[in-house]
Amino acid sequence: MDKLWNHNYIKVMTANFALFFAFYILTPLLPLYLSENFHATKDVIGLVLSGYTITALLFRPFSGYVVDTFSRKTVLMVCYAAFAIFFAGYLAAGTLLLFTIVRTLHGGPFGALTVANSTVAIDVLPSSRRNEGIGYYGLSNNLAMAIAPTIGIFIYRWSHSFELLFWLAFIIAMLGMAVDATVKVTKAPIATPRKKLSFDRFFLTKGWLLGFNMVFFGFCFGVLSNYLAIYSKEQLGITGGTGTYFMLCSIGLILSRLQGGSALRKGRLTHNAAEGMVISLVGYTIFILMPTIGAFVPQSSPVTTQHLTLFGYYGSALLIGLGNGHMWPAFQNMMINLAQHNQRGTANSTILISWDIGMGLGILVGGVVAEHLGYHAAFWVVAVANAIGVGLFFLHTRQFFINRRITLEVK
After folding, report:
1. Separation between Cα atoms, residue 364 and residue 354, nearest integer Å
2. pLDDT of residue 195
3. Which of the residues 243, 305, 318, 331 has an alpha carbon 20 to 30 A from that of 95?
């Protein structure tokens, strides 16, 4: 059997870890930063933070085209350098307007970099281990999610300095770029530029329903990742649990990647996707439902409202992690299995575009709903959106993929 863990693959995973570490060390704290430093309201926070995702979304289609057309290593290094430099821009942004501009523009290199790095990871994998390798590649994201928010929150409590966090994110991003610079891309299936550009050079139209389905799941995580800290503090009275929540979520992600590796190697993509989204639905449901149930618990009961709240809070983290860990690599592999080899960048950008659309909508809608109806209502919207996504997959998306796949899926 071909070797999965080759040196270049490990380097690309390490660089991806640095990329997402720099991202996640700030993510749960930025709403607090905007609220404390600029006195931004909830809907303004949602608007400011959604700009990052919207810009990433706009860059994704062009990123896939550029990665498939030009030298992937060159594109990778340019994108990584730009991504790192923007962290320094946060240090110079002294007003809400300047911060909004920097944060919004930062989404561009982030969107392009995630496409370029994941496509290079596919290139350095042996074809016989590609499905499995893509699944394990996500472990680098998951480890970053597990460690970075906890470290970021700890550093902030110790130093009360967002400036220190911005510097740390910048340095880690530069280290990731240095690692990627040593990667040798031996495979370069670059597409010959066409005389006429068509829409499918920027978005894999063959996989449109897969992308549309992914929007619902991105929406859910957009609300969760950006408003968890404030919701926990204001609504649940949990002041120090955000880092632990992300840690448990990431443990679930890691466990699912390890457990699901065999199924991915066998090509059981729709099975993995279905299993993951159902587990996530249960997680989101108990997250929002347990505090509601707790309100009806008699005071004489040995199980208190706080017990149920904590059970739903931390239990949902593990379940959502397990679910997303099964679902995401399955959807990514399904999209790639609908593409020709010279459309890998486009396939990667398409699934990421869909996730970004969902994330952006989640951040924006979540902020508006929270401002007018409260964070509890915003997370009820999350549970409903997740349920719609699950229903769509079982009713239409699964068969849509089976009818159009190029690589045969093992049942």
Report:
1. 16
2. 47
3. 243
| 5 class by beta-carbon count within 10 Å (0-12 exposed, 13-18 middle, 19+ buried) | exposed
CA distance 154 to 142: 19
**Which long-range contacts does 186-191 make (Cβ < 8 Å, 24+ apart)?**
186/8, 186/123, 186/124, 187/123, 187/124, 188/71, 188/72, 188/123, 189/123, 189/341, 189/342, 189/344, 190/68, 190/69, 190/70, 190/71, 190/72, 190/342, 191/68, 191/69, 191/342, 191/343
State whether the Cα torsion 170-172-177-181 is positive or negative.
positive
Q: Tell me what pLDDT residue 367 has.
A: 83
Question: Measuring CA to CA, which residue among 137, 124, 177 is closest to residue 7?
Answer: 124
98-116 residue pLDDT tens: 999 999 999 999 989 988 9
* Alpha-carbon span 314 to 44, nearest angstrom: 28
Short-list 323, 150, 137, 310, CA closest to 243: 150
What is d(CA 40, CA 257) in angstroms, rounded to the nearest whole number? 38
Q: Are 281 and 259 in contact (CB under 8 A)?
A: no
- Token pair recorded at residue 287: 């997250």
- Tell me the C-alpha to C-alpha distance, in Å, between residue 169 and each of 20, 108, 200, 226, 383: 10, 17, 35, 18, 32
Length of the chain: 411
Q: How far is CA 93 from CA 37, 73, 85, 357, in A?
A: 11, 31, 13, 26
User: What's the confidence (pLDDT) of residue 332?
Assistant: 85
Cα of 75 vs its chain's centroid, Å: 21
Q: What is the value of pTM for the model shown?
A: 0.74
Query: What tokens does 220 get?
Result: 């859910």
Residues of the chain with pLDDT under 50: 190-191, 195, 408-411
Handedness of CA 36, 38, 40, 46 (dihedral sign): negative
Judge contact between 224 and 95, C-beta under 8 A. no
Question: Hey, what amino acid is at 141?
Answer: N
Q: Render the burial of 146-166: b for 16+ CB within 10 Å, e for the rest.
A: bbbbbbbbebbeeeeebeebb
